[in-house]
Amino acid sequence: MDSIEAKEYKPKSSTAKTRLSWLWSEYSVIIAFVIIFIASAILSPRFLDMNNQLNILMQVSIIGIIAMGMTVVMLSGGIDLSVGSVLALAGVISVLALNASGSILVGVFTALLVGSFAGFLNGLMVAKGRIASFIATLGMMAAARSIALYIADGGSVSGEVAGFTAISNSDLWIFDVPVIIFLVMTAGVYMLMHKTRFGRYVYALGSNEKAALLSAIRVDRIKIGVYTLIGSLVGIAAVIETSRLNSISSSSSGAQYELDAIAAVIIGGTRMTGGRGKIIGTLFGVLILGILNNMMNLMNVSPYLQGFVKGLIIIIAVVFQKRE
Amino acid sequence: MTEGPFMAMKNIDKSFNGVTVLRNVNLDVEKGEIHALLGENGAGKSTLMNILGGVHMPDNGSVYIDGEQVKMLNPRISQEQGISFIHQELNVVADLTVYENMFLGSELRNKIGFLKVEEMCKETHDVLATLGVDVDPKEYVRNLDTSYKQLIEIAKALLRKSRVIIMDEPTTSLTEHEVDRLFELMRNLRKTGVSIIYISHKLKEIKAVCDRFTVLRDGKVVGTGSMDAESPETITKMMVGKAVSQERFVHGDPFGPVIMEISGLSSEGLFKNINFSLRKGEILGFTGLAGDGRTELFESIFGYRRKYTGEIKINGKSEKIDHPRKALRAGIGFVPKNRKENAIIKDLSVIQNMSLSSMGNFENMGFLRDSIEKERFKHYKGLLNIKVHNPQITIDKLSGGNQQKVVIAKWLEANTEILIFDNPTQGIDVGAKQEIYQEIVSLSEMGKAVIVLSSEAPEVIKICHSINVMYHGEITARFNGEDANEEEIMQYATGSKKEVEKIG
Lengths: 324, 504
Hints:
- Chain A has helices at 2-8, 16-43, 50-75, 83-101, 104-127, 133-151, 166-169, 177-195, 197-207, 209-214, 219-245, 257-267, 279-298, 303-321, and strands at residues 156-158, 171-172, 175-176, 247-249.
- With 324 residues, chain A is mainly alpha-helical.
- In chain A, a hairpin with a 2-residue loop joins strand 2 and strand 3 (175-176).
- Chain B is α/β, with parallel strands linked by helices.
- Chain B folds into 3 domains: 7-240, Rossmann fold; 256-331 and 416-427 and 444-504, P-loop containing nucleotide triphosphate hydrolases (Rossmann fold); 340-415, no CATH class.
- Helices cover 34% and strands 25% of the residues of chain B.
- In chain B, the strands form 5 sheets. In chain B, strands 6-7-8-3-9-10 form a 6-stranded mixed sheet, with helices on both faces. A 6-stranded mixed sheet of chain B has the order 16-19-20-13-21-22, with helices on both faces.
- Chain B starts with 6 loop residues before the first strand and ends with a helix.
């Protein structure tokens, strides 16, 4: 819907200047992406290499899947800090289920189930318990990590079923499977947000919750749905993460994923308070973060400085978007 | 007039992005007069006042105070010239106390920088006393009624020794009683030589309190003069550019069967033992002062509030309504008051606001179809005369009247048998008001059952078949639309008369 809206909206006085500023406000993240892409291509000859490009996509796939869910949560006016911890918990439990059952299917379903359930609990706390999402998911963040550590006794658990690693380590045509999952999820969330009533309700709720309720929208159910959705996406991300190295660490896996996901959403132009933002924006936000990481590696920037650059980009992005 | 007006704006031109908003506008305000600035929404009143307030610079023309030209480069200069602007949206900080708000930005301090709290409290108390208000200066503003917030703003202006006070629709959130007090206060201010520029849509109020008026239409002055010399009709005509009927809109139409029956509805501290029934084709009015519980009553019937006892029967069937969704299923639609907070979703487009309560009508295999939405909107655009070029723009870009029409379209699309309107013409200009009245009446003629809540008695008299008056959560009187008059309604609304036995 929004993209259509954007195309048809014509400013009253169509001077070149207002047109340009309109273009910038609607598509700033894509313009920024193009600029960064071109700059990277000039700075490093290896950047444009096909393998490098595919590598970037592979590296952003996990954060990308989580960021899609985070976009939905933030559009609804909330935030989910628990994604990293829930990823570790879902990973640990799914590996145990995988090893116990010997079935890859059971392992995958367990991860989905654990993720969705944790998300569902977040949703219940936010919608029914009326706890601020920041607080509710902060609690979940601590609790989920703790349970993961307890179950795995603080260490890592590894899969013992042959073929599990194939999920993350095989290709379809030239793409790695995680990349394909990421793109499919992006398309799915895009359709959900722009082509279904659920999406419309999420935008309405994030923009004006009281008016949404007075428009006879089941606001509570939508909220629970939103957190369950991100939970299940985290479950999918957990499968990819676990399958990549056939193991998951209860202490370090998923650490700071919430920050990267939120950063991607913010760079993508979604408003912190909800109601405004685009899935496509987040896609490019994810890609911008991926390119930056990649370039810093290619140009041998100290890993200790990479966080600084990332922080800078987030702040610059927000400053440029502060146009309302 | 020997020495010229105290404040004069001469030949003001202003345009935004090539669109002319003000054209050669002159405004003279004498010392110690209450000057009404009239005009429909979009006529240029706010722009003119923002120029006086130093928010905008005029393209042409100048401002004179006491005969001297003043360049209002920024709001600070304007304030130093003794001009105070009391906005429609009140600029008080709810989490500060009364005196802290009064002295915000200009706190009294002693030599080492500590606040002189007691002195500030005393001054606050004195100023409020001259306004006839008894409020503890150390009370938190969030605990006060809206009307007090208004008074705090006015008191602030007095504290700054303002010479010109601009009031932008100050009575929107006040009860009639408070309005009277405000007028008393304005008359007192006039005596002390303060000039007031009073912006309002309510001609009756203007007639009551203003000395002179200036009418703007489409950025031009179309009339100015003494209030006594003109009748409200001619002024309305100037504002709208055409005559507006003041007659009742409804006549004794035959009603259909009873569709909703409310019996014994009570909610602790909000309303008690409410009984009434509503027929198809009927327009039932509810009026009263602020705090009479009518909004809460209908928010409960609509399921927004859940803590109530009693029975709601729709089409003879008892319904348990504890969520707006259930109310919608039972056939109740609700156009709430305070459109901005309660009704419009400002980030969604005009079309999306229209479709929000009935998404199922626009779905095909679970996916939304833009084309159906567009088609339906075109229908309502024609039906309700919604003025919008591109319905894909967000709804906050429309004028108040057009926003309200979109909200009405939303409920028409939901196609409920019963429609509740709470203050349907709040913040809407005269022309659009008439259209909304007509729309409400034609809904009843189509066989819908309509309830109209309004704090303005003339409004319910104009469009309702019968009128309920509420006071402190109870229905104190019931009138036939034709027999009702404002004075009698006020007696019941203020609690000075009660007629419970008649209701039975």
